[in-house]
Design a protein that fits this description.
The structure holds two protein chains of two kinds.
Chain A: H1 2-49, H2 58-63, E1 67-68, E2 78-79, H3 82-113, H4 116-130, H5 134-153, H6 161-185, H7 189-197, H8 202-231, H9 234-239, H10 263-270, H11 279-315
Antiparallel strand pairs in A: 1-2
Chain B: H1 3-8, E1 11-20, E2 23-33, E3 38-42, H2 49-55, E4 66-74, E5 77-78, H3 86-92, E6 93-96, H4 107-118, H5 126-139, H6 143-146, H7 159-168, E7 177-181, H8 189-202, E8 207-211, H9 215-221, E9 224-229, E10 232-238, H10 239-244, H11 249-255
The chains are: A mainly alpha, B alpha/beta.
C-alpha cells in the first residue's frame, strides 16, 4: 500500500510539472488578449478613417445637418452629422429618463422589500430580460409599440424617438437593476438596523440611508445604462424611424414623435452600400471614432465613480 | 404585586416565549425591570440575552421568521398588540448596538436622524436643531471635541466617539429606556472605562438595560443583574447580591468562570 501511494504522488507531480507552464501561459494569454483586442479595435477603426481625417471639415461635421454622402452629378458631397448626434443624445436622454427610475425602483424592491421566492424569481426574470437579443427588442418596437403609439398619439407612424427610447430603456433596465441591487446589498445591514431602531420607516431608510450610502454604485449603474443607450444599434434602427431631423423647438414635447437617426444606425445602414475605401466609407469610420470616444468617456467616468465606492467602504 | 408598583416598572414581561422558525430562544420569561437603574443581562453565548433585549423594541421582527408569545409591557403598556406604532415605541425605547453603527452621513445629521423621522420639517427650525445637537453631544461629553467638525462624516470618528455618538443620537428623541447590546465589545480598555462612566451618568434620566459578556463589567457597572441560561431567566437580583451570594447553582458556576 505504501508503494502505491508513493507512485501515485509521483504521477501527479510529473503531470503538473509538464502542465503548469502551459496552463500559466494560457492564463496569461487570456488576460493580455483583452488589451490586445481593445488596441486592435482602435487600430483598425483609425486605420480605416485615417486617410480622410486631415480633410474632414469638422465644423461641417459637428454643426451642420446635411449628410449627403452620394451627391447628384456635379455636386460636392457633404458630411454634416449633427442630426445623428442629436439622435444618439436624445435617445440616450429620453431612454434614461424612463430607465433610471424604473431600474432603481425595481432594485429597491428586490433588495429591500421582496423576500424569499419572490425575490429569487425576480432576480432570474431580470437576468432573462438582459439576455433578450437586441433584434427581438427591435421587433417589439416595430410590432407592439408602433401601433400603440399610433393609437395613443394619433400619429401616422409610430416608429420615432419615443418608441426607440422605450425600447432602449427596457434594454438598459436589467443592467441598471442588477448593478444597483448589488450596490444596495453592499450597504452594511447595521445601517438599516440603526435607522430602524431610531424609528425610521422602511421608505425613510431607503431614501435617507440606503441611497446616500449606495450613491456611487447607483450612479455607476446609471452610467453603464447610458453606455448601453449610446451603443445600441439594431433595435434603435428598427424603432426610431431612421430619419435625419433636428427639431426647431426643443421645448415642444411633440419632438418625441419625430423620427430620429442615431450614429450607430447610420453606420449599420450605410456601410453595406458605401464604396470600400471611398470618402463615404471613411466618414462612417469617423463616426465610429466619435462613438468610441463617447463610450471611452462614459466608461472612464463610471470607473472613477465605482472606485469611489470602494474608497468609501474602506472608511466605513 | 400592587398596581402602583406595576406602573412604576419600566419593563415588565409575562410568560414571554420566542421562536426563530422552529428554534425556541426564550422560554416563559417573566421579568420586572425598574426605572432609572442599570440592569445587566448576563449569561453564556446563545442564552437568549440579546434576543430578550431585542424584544423590548421589537426589532427582532425584521427577520420575518420570528414568533412571539406572551406579554411585554413598556411603561405599563403591552407592546405586542396590533395597535402599537413601532415608530413611537422605538422613539421611547432607544438601542445601542455591539458595533458602533453611526450612519454614513455627517455627525449632525446622525444626531438629527431620529427627530427628523418623527417630526415635520417646520417643527425643526435651525435654532432648534442647533440646540438639539449641542445638548445631545454635551450629554455624552463629545461637544468640545466635535463642535467645530459637525459636518464631518460620522464613520470617520474613532470607535469610542462613534459609540458615544450612537448614544447621543437617541437623546433628542427623549427616550425613557435605552437598550445596549454589548456596547463596549468593540472598544479598548480606556474606551470601555469612559463609556461605562457615561452610562452611569445617564441612569438618572433613563432606564438602562445592558447585555454584556463581560462579568466584571456587569459587576462594576450595573445595579441589578439578570442571569440567563438556555432561554430562561435563572436569577434576577441586585448585582452585588447576585455576585456575592448567588442563589442558583448555575449562576454560581457561571460567575466563578467554571463555564461559558
Amino acid at each position: 500500500m505504501a508503494t502505491k501511494k508513493t507512485s501515485l504522488r509521483g504521477l501527479g507531480a510529473k503531470f503538473l510539472d509538464g502542465a503548469e507552464p502551459l496552463i500559466r501561459a494560457l492564463i496569461y494569454a487570456s488576460g493580455w488578449s483583452s488589451i490586445v483586442f481593445v488596441a486592435a479595435i482602435f487600430f483598425f477603426i483609425f486605420r480605416e478613417a485615417w486617410p480622410i481625417l486631415p480633410r474632414v471639415n469638422w465644423g461641417e461635421f459637428f454643426f451642420t445637418n446635411d449628410w449627403v454622402p452620394v451627391p447628384a452629378e456635379g455636386n460636392k458631397a457633404s458630411y454634416g452629422a449633427m442630426s445623428m448626434m442629436y439622435g444618439t443624445i436624445s435617445v440616450t436622454i429620453v431612454s434614461m429618463v424612463i430607465a433610471v427610475p424604473l431600474g432603481l425602483g425595481a432594485a429597491v424592491y428586490i433588495s429591500e422589500f421582496a423576500t424569499g421566492k419572490v425575490k429569487e424569481s425576480f432576480k432570474v426574470l431580470i437576468e432573462l430580460l438582459a439576455a433578450i437579443p437586441s433584434i427581438v427588442w427591435g421587433f417589439i418596437g416595430l410590432v407592439v409599440l408602433n401601433p400603440i403609439i399610433q393609437d395613443v398619439f394619433g400619429v401616422a407612424v409610430g416608429v420615432n424617438l419615443l418608441n426607440g427610447s422605450i425600447v432602449v430603456a427596457f434594454m438598459a433596465v436589467p443592467m441598471i437593476v442588477s448593478i444597483s441591487e448589488d450596490a444596495l446589498r453592499a450597504v452594511p445591514d447595521t445601517y438599516r438596523e440603526a435607522a430602524l431602531a431610531l424609528g425610521a420607516s422602511k421608505w425613510q431608510i431607503v431614501y435617507k440611508v440606503l441611497f446616500p450610502a449606495a450613491k456611487n454604485g447607483l450612479l455607476a449603474a446609471c452610467m453603464l445604462g447610458v453606455g448601453r443607450a449610446v451603443g445600441e444599434t439594431m433595435a434603435v434602427l428598427m424603432a426610431t424611424g431612421n430619419g435625419m431631423v433636428i427639431p426647431e423647438n426643443f421645448a415642444n414635447p411633440a419632438i418625441l414623435l419625430d423620427k430620429v437617426r442615431t450614429l450607430t444606425a447610420t453606420i449599420v445602414s450605410e456601410l453595406p452600400d458605401s464604396v470600400h475605401g471611398g470618402d463615404h466609407y471613411r466618414m462612417l469610420f469617423v463616426i465610429g471614432i466619435v462613438l468610441l470616444v463617447f463610450s471611452v468617456v462614459i466608461n472612464v467616468t463610471s470607473d472613477i465613480i465605482v472606485k469611489g465606492v470602494k474608497g468609501d467602504q474602506k472608511n466605513a | 404585586m400592587s398596581d402602583t408598583e406595576t406602573d412604576e416598572l419600566s419593563i415588565r414581561t409575562r410568560n414571554l416565549s420566542l421562536w426563530y422558525g422552529n428554534f425556541q430562544a426564550l422560554y416563559d420569561v417573566s421579568v420586572d425591570i425598574k426605572p432609572n437603574i442599570i440592569t445587566s443581562l448576563i449569561g453564556p453565548s446563545g442564552c437568549g440575552k440579546t434576543t430578550l433585549l431585542r424584544c423590548f423594541n421589537r426589532i427582532n421582527e425584521r427577520y420575518g421568521n420570528v414568533t412571539t408569545k406572551g406579554e411585554v409591557q413598556i411603561l405599563g403598556e403591552n407592546i405586542y398588540t396590533e395597535a402599537v406604532a413601532l415608530a413611537e415605541l422605538r422613539k421611547s425605547v432607544g438601542m445601542v448596538f455591539q458595533r458602533p453603527n453611526p450612519l454614513p452621513i455627517s455627525i449632525e445629521k446622525n444626531i438629527l436622524f431620529g427627530v427628523r423621522s418623527h417630526s415635520r420639517r417646520s417643527d425643526l427650525p435651525a435654532s432648534r436643531r442647533e440646540e438639539l445637537i449641542e445638548s445631545a453631544l454635551t450629554e455624552v461629553s463629545l461637544w468640545n471635541e466635535l463642535k467645530d467638525n459637525l459636518k464631518r462624516k460620522a464613520t470617520t470618528l474613532t470607535l469610542e466617539q462613534q459609540q458615544k455618538l450612537c448614544i447621543a443620537r437617541l437623546l433628542p428623541l427623549k427616550p425613557d429606556i435605552i437598550l445596549m447590546d454589548e456596547p463596549c465589545s468593540a472598544l479598548d480598555a480606556d474606551g470601555i472605562e469612559r463609556i461605562e462612566e457615561l452610562i452611569s451618568d445617564l441612569k438618572d434620566r433613563y432606564t438602562i438595560v445592558i447585555v454584556t459578556h463581560n462579568m466584571a463589567q456587569a459587576r462594576r457597572a450595573s445595579d441589578e443583574c439578570i442571569y440567563m441560561y438556555l432561554g430562561e431567566i435563572k436569577e434576577h437580583a441586585p448585582t452585588m447580591e447576585l455576585f456575592m451570594n448567588p442563589k442558583n447553582e448555575q449562576t454560581a458556576m457561571y460567575i466563578e468562570g467554571r463555564y461559558g
